[in-house]
Amino acid sequence: MIRLRVWIVAGLMCLASAMAVVARPSIRMADQGPAIDLETVFPRQFGDWRIDERVPVVVPSPDVQAQLDKIYSQVLARTYVNSRGERVMLSVAYGGDQSDSMQVHRPEVCYPAQGFQVLSVQRDALSGVAGRDIPVQKVHTRLGSRNEPVMYWVVVGERVVGTNTEQKLAQLSYGLRGRIPDGMLVRVSSIHPDNQAAYAAQERFLREIAQSIAPQYQSRVFGSTDL
């Protein structure tokens, strides 16, 4: 039965792929709504959080930067700190073309490429963020003694997608309607020995930053409430 379901899904995806090619999507969602400028969308200071100016900006190596440039049109990386000394690293990647030929790089793949161990990957839901319950992935990573719990989600167009299959189906759905979706990966992480404490701080951070992001960008960052 499971194998049959896999074949059915695969068949539907192949059929949708063929139809999407015939439909030839031409409407770029990135050109339809307000222009995305990550530096503007994500505030530098909000609530009890501000950018930690003492943390140096990490510049990717030329080969990594070249790969990023192929997939994303903008990348934002910041470290925030609050009055309690809690630090949360925010990394956002935005691409104006998330058609079938483009794919986001998920932390489960990126972190091992940098030498990290991925100890666990867990699906969860982040409630009460911009009036939404956002499906997220929690990835427990470690590099030597550095313990780094990661939380992230991916938005294709205005849909939050949890898996590569969901991402593919969202791309095909937009393609069948002649639309080329944009996409965003929002990731937060903390260097902390206690995963539970780290995720709690990340959730507080995300709920607070959501209140400071302008309404016109909410669906692009957190997904639409109408879907």
Automatic annotation (TrEMBL):
<dbReference type="Pfam" id="PF11984">
    <property type="entry name" value="DUF3485"/>
</dbReference>
<dbReference type="InterPro" id="IPR054653">
    <property type="entry name" value="EpsI_type_B_pred"/>
</dbReference>
<dbReference type="InterPro" id="IPR014263">
    <property type="entry name" value="Methanolan_biosynth_EpsI"/>
</dbReference>
<feature type="domain" description="Methanolan biosynthesis EpsI">
    <location>
        <begin position="8"/>
        <end position="214"/>
    </location>
</feature>
<keyword id="KW-0732">Signal</keyword>
<feature type="signal peptide">
    <location>
        <begin position="1"/>
        <end position="23"/>
    </location>
</feature>
<protein>
    <submittedName>
        <fullName>EpsI family protein</fullName>
    </submittedName>
</protein>
